[in-house]
């Protein structure tokens, strides 16, 4: 079984940019699954939850590294 692509985009956000991270975090689930039913939206929300948490963690790590240098 081939994995299903949940979302695809040519945008490459900068993980050290507060604006890029904030834009990703504030983007509603519906933007990633515009034609989704309730079940699909729930699945996308679950995936995005961990991705958004990881984006915040990376941004904080990059800021901490920059502050140390």
Provide a descriptive summary of the structure in words.
The chain is mainly alpha-helical. The chain has one domain (18-68). The chain has two helices and no strands. It has helices at 18-26, 38-68. Helix 1 (18-26) packs antiparallel against helix 2. The longest helix has 31 residues, at 38-68. It starts with 17 loop residues before the first helix and ends with a helix.
Strand share of the residues?
Answer: under 5%
Give the averaged pLDDT, no decimals: 86
Shape: elongated
Rg, Å, rounded? 14 Å
Output the helix-strand order. HH
Low-confidence blocks of residues? none
How many helices? The count is: 2
Question: Which structural category do the helix and sheet elements fall into?
Answer: mainly alpha
State the main characteristics.
mainly alpha; 0% strand; 58% helix
Outline the secondary-structure elements.
Blueprint: H1 18-26, H2 38-68
Helix pairs in contact: 1-2
Give a quick rundown of the structure:
The protein has 69 residues and is mainly alpha-helical. Helices cover 58% and strands 0% of the residues. The longest helix has 31 residues, at 38-68.
